[in-house]
Amino acid sequence: MPRFEYKEGSSSKFWEVDRKDAVLTTRWGRIGAEGQEKTQKFEHTYEARQAYQKQVLEKTKKGYQRVKPKDTAPAPKTNPELEEAILRAPNDADGYLVYADWLQAQGDPRGELIALQHALSRARGDEVTKLKRKVAALQKEHQGTLLGVGLTAMQAEKALQVGWRWGFIHTARVTSPDYDADADFDIVDTLTMLLRHPSGTFLQDLTLGIPDREGDADYTELARVLTKWTPKALTRLFLGDFIFPDESELSWVRLGNLTNVLKALPQLTELRLRGGDVRLGALELPELQRFTLESAGLPKAALQSITGAKWPKLEHLEVWFGSENHGGRFRGKDVQPLLDATGLPKLKHLGLCNVAFSDSLTPLLAKSKVLKQLETLDLSKGTLMDADAEVLAANASAFKHLQKLDVSRNQLTSKGIKLLAKLCREVVTARQREIYDDGEDGRYVAIGE
């Protein structure tokens, strides 16, 4: 229940408010006293929401200030030496089980949670159900120690979703609370609490949703938090898990300067970025296997970072270029290092998507070195026209080894589709777009905003 306090002169008062669907509950009185309570039931949920907002505004105008909840549960025990041993092999259960023994000896409930979740990972049949119930009961009883009041509150608001493994948070998704959420913390607070909490020590998979639902979405502060409280075991990172255009247009989202974040995470195996205005710096990610950048306007500097990277283990590379109105004016020659497979010895999937320069790209593809090592090629959401299809079809032998070619959401007519239909084992041609007569050649990308 959100709490507000007013302290001035001899006044020392509190006011609390809570909304559950169409029911509004308030409690007030002197700080330290039990106070009085009142419950209002409305016919519609929106009426309760409006009353909640109106009363909060009235109290803040009178000088009441919101008080963030504090943890009262016993602080979790930690052992840096045992944690370092786990970090050396974060997917090896043995290190966690050793830690479990130590924690149980300290009376910390995480020790039992590690043991239960490890047993659950090996259980079969009816034993699975029994262990799941024990795990749920333990987590509920000790949520103050295992998660903390702040993270528990954000989980209730669906601004935090977590997956546990062997007593610790293994996967997490953090996003901005909904418009009408009774949230005590914003997304920056939640991410900071997650990365600082002992339960997040071995976090391996992190997804960050929309950072702001009211203004321009900017990941700058989140990047600073990641740099300051770098998760040492993190292998998968997704910045920009939002629905476009429902939550935001791609071009409205600022990913910002990620140079320091990526320098701090050389162990990443998967990196996915969605948004615009991004800087990557010198990319040195020797363990990376999958890289995706979804943009409606790729900055030239970002492309230079990508083409200049050395990724010895990269198997999947996907780049969305976008509209010239929101990024650099690219030509086929700008991606020549990728076509030459420079620094990409293991690449099996190449996505050159949302491309406005298909006319200068297609002549280079058939002769490219990288094509010979690919299993799949994604040219979707771009500006392929029938003339470009003729270029690809004229070099059919260069593409026949592919398992899949995706040319969906381009600007092909039935003639162009027919030319490409048998270019390789599977050709995806769905959802072609019209060619607009705009006085030029009518090319426009599928996602330009």
Considering the chains and any ligands shown, give keywords for the structure:
449 residues, alpha/beta, q64v53_bacfr protein fold, Leucine-rich repeat, LRR (right-handed beta-alpha superhelix), eleven-stranded mixed β-sheet, 15 helices, globular
What would you say about this model in short?
This protein has helices at residues 45-61, 80-88, 93-105, 109-122, 126-141, 143-146, 148-156, 187-196, 220-228, 259-263, 300-307, 336-339, 358-365, 386-394, 414-420, and strands spanning 3-8, 11-20, 23-30, 36-41, 65-67, 160-165, 168-174, 205-209, 236-241, 254-257, 270-274, 276-279, 290-294, 316-320, 349-353, 376-378, 404-406, 427-428. It is α/β, with parallel strands linked by helices and 449 residues long. The strands form 3 sheets. An 11-stranded mixed sheet has the order 6-7-8-9-11-13-14-15-16-17-18.
Largest beta-sheet details: 11 strands, mixed
CATH superfamily of the largest domain: Ribonuclease Inhibitor
Low-confidence stretches at least 5 residues in length (pLDDT < 50)? none
| Structural class label | alpha/beta
Q: What is the global morphology?
A: globular
Helix content bin:
25-40%
Radius of gyration: 27 Å
| CATH class type of the largest domain | Alpha Beta
- Discrete helix count: 15
Reading side by side through the largest sheet, how are the strands ordered? 6-7-8-9-11-13-14-15-16-17-18
End-to-end distance, in Å? 40 Å
Number of beta-strand segments: 18
CATH architecture level-2 label of the largest domain: Alpha-Beta Horseshoe
> Can you tell me the CATH topology of the largest domain?
Leucine-rich repeat, LRR (right-handed beta-alpha superhelix)
How many domains?
A: 3
Q: DSSP strand (E) fraction?
A: 15-25%
Mean pLDDT: 91
